[in-house]
Structures are given as C-alpha cells and as structure tokens.
Amino acid sequence: MRMSDIFLAFPRLMLAIALSVVLGPSIENAILALSITYWPWFSRIVYAETRFVRHSTFVEAMEALGANKFRIIAFHILPNVLSPIIVRATIGMGYTILTAAALGFLGVGAQPPTPEWGLAVSEAREYLPDAWWFATFPGMAIFVVVMAFNMFGDGLRDVLDPRLRISGK
Q1: What is the pLDDT of residues 41-89, one digit of tens each?
Q2: How many Å is the Cα radius of gyration of the chain?
Q3: What CATH number is associated with residue 82?
C-alpha cells in the first residue's frame, strides 16, 4: 500500500504525460502509462473493502464454524469486494478516455494515421475558424462516451451495492 501511496501523491494526468513522454509517443505506450497510473485506485479499493468485509459478522461466523481461509475468501469476501471494483472500473473508464484523448491531443499518445479522438481534435485546430465541425464532432464523441460510462457505472452502483439495497434508496 505504500507504493500505491507514492503513486497517488502525483496527479494522474501529469504522471501519465511524463510516462508517455519517457516511453515515446504511441498508442501502446499511452495505454501502458494509463495502466501504470490507474492501478493504485484499484488497490486502495480492494484493500479498503477487504478490510471492511473481513471484520463483518458473517465472516466471523464462518471462522467460528471452522471454514478454511480459501472458502472464506473465495465465497464470502471476494463476492462482496467484486462489485465496488466493477463499479469503479466503469466510472474510471470515463477518466481513462479523457486522459487518453489528452495524451493524443498533446502528441504523446496515438500518432497519425491512427484514428483517435484527442488526435483528431488536435489536428482540427488549424481548421477551426472555417470548419468548426472537424473539432466539434470528435469532442462530442468524447463527451457522449464519457457520460455513458459514468451513467452506466452509476447504474451499476445502484444495482450492485448491497448497502443501497438494504437502506432502500
């Protein structure tokens, strides 16, 4: 967890830009940079949720009944930890798409002729006064996809979160 704290000390976008510059401009290196900057969020969620579920009454009851650790982890802790991870992944996809578009816009992500929305907006800057739609439609595509992932993640949270089901919200 200390390593994830070190990664969380830096802004994700700046770290992704720095890693993309060091690795070289390509879509593969941009994906690698995004992966390296995004793993601490998942590790923190898994750690926090596992600690919360580990001290739950039903886990203590399974230990009292003599269940082995593998059974407790596989059948009781993992299913309760999996839904927050799935929700975080869907909501985080929006941020990942925005960061990938920013890397493409800055020239350290996808390179021509690879089609990428951030790169399309960047290349359309010189045509902006005469052909505004060159930059508008890729920007709108980014907006729509990011909003769709955020709304999908919010809906998944409503469906998968057992704490919301219990309280009736």
Answers
A1: 888 888 988 898 888 898 999 999 999 999 998 888 888 888 888 888 8
A2: 21
A3: 1.10.3720.10
